[in-house]
Amino acid sequence: MSHDIGAAYDAAADGWRAGPARMYGRLAEAMADHAPVPLDGARVLDAGAGTGVAGRALRARGAREVVALDLAPGMLPRPPALSTVGDLQRIPFRDGSFDLAAAAFSLNHFADPTPAAIELRRVAGALLATAFAPGWDHPAKEAIDAVMVRRGFDAPDWYRTFKAAGGDGDPGPAELEDLARRAGFAHAEAQVLEVDSGLRSPADLVDWRIGMAHLAPFAATLAPDALAEARAEAEAAVEGMPSLVVAIVVLSAR
Ligand SMILES: C[S@@+](CC[C@H](N)C(=O)[O-])C[C@H]1O[C@@H](n2cnc3c(N)ncnc32)[C@H](O)[C@@H]1O
């Protein structure tokens, strides 16, 4: 399934930069305030980096060297950032290469994240990770996806598998702490935060949702007129909805 996820994010990269990257940037700022080790001069692996928002937030707080690692080459931050293509389950770095691994919304892509967490422990002395909090939702998700289904969108297999593997839902603080301990971190603390993403208008919500990896490749197949119509219908569907405040779990482990 990793191959399909990597290909989907690769195909979504432009849509992601135009939409979700803004929300994930805010979430990365909130995560970076909970680093488990001093950031001044730290070497950081941005693990499942996407466009590199977590690495940027950590660099702004003093990290010296940030390396972005992701399955999807198209998502990776552009030079002069240091980046490499690779799988979190087989990280292409030596033991202890980093002071901190930051895994922002990447560990949730595994049916069992334990092997990836063990790899992160192997290469880094500490871990900062985020996931969506159990039960967090926003009505725009269902409304916008429904508009796209009416326009011919059919959820790709990897997304159905990913959703089904979620089972009882996203991991809570206790589950993320257990994961960190299983991976070999001696101290683990996780907490739920509510973060204002800054996305408020119907257009913001539509940019966010149609830039996600399950929808962006479909949206890219629509002719400009058809995409404009779909967007207008989606914006009407989310008119009056609350702005996007996201509940996340932040794990700090060392
Ligand atoms: C939800 S995005 C988050 C990206 C970024 N960390 C952020 O906060 O914006 C998840 C990222 O994890 C990457 N990813 C998923 N599975 C991966 C794996 N097995 N190895 C490396 N990266 C992976 C995806 O390609 C995608 O860029």
Topology (SSEs and partners):
Elements: H1 2-18, H2 20-32, E1 43-47, H3 53-60, E2 65-70, E3 82-85, E4 100-104, H4 114-123, E5 127-132, H5 139-150, H6 157-165, H7 173-182, E6 188-196, H8 202-210, H9 216-219, H10 224-238, E7 245-253
Helix pairs in contact: 2-3, 2-8, 5-8, 5-10, 8-10
Bound molecules: S-adenosylmethionine.
Residues 2, 5-6, 9, 24, 28, 48-51, 53-54, 70-72, 75, 87-89, 104-106, 109 line the site of S-adenosylmethionine.
Q: How would you sum up this structure in a few lines?
A:
With 254 residues, the chain is of the alpha/beta class.
Can you tell me about this structure?
There is one protein chain. The chain is an alpha/beta fold. The protein has a domain at 2-137 and 168-197 and 244-253: Rossmann fold (3-Layer(aba) Sandwich), CATH 3.40.50. It has helices at 2-18, 20-32, 53-60, 114-123, 139-150, 157-165, 173-182, 202-210, 216-219, 224-238, and strands spanning 43-47, 65-70, 82-85, 100-104, 127-132, 188-196, 245-253. The chain has a seven-stranded mixed β-sheet with strand order 3-2-1-4-5-7-6, sandwiched between helices. Strand 1 (43-47), helix 3 (53-60) and strand 2 (65-70) form a beta-alpha-beta unit. Helix 2 (20-32) crosses helix 8 and helix 8 (202-210) packs across helix 10. It is globular, with a radius of gyration of 18 Å. The two termini are 29 Å apart. The site of S-adenosylmethionine has 23 residues, from helix 1, helix 2 and helix 3.
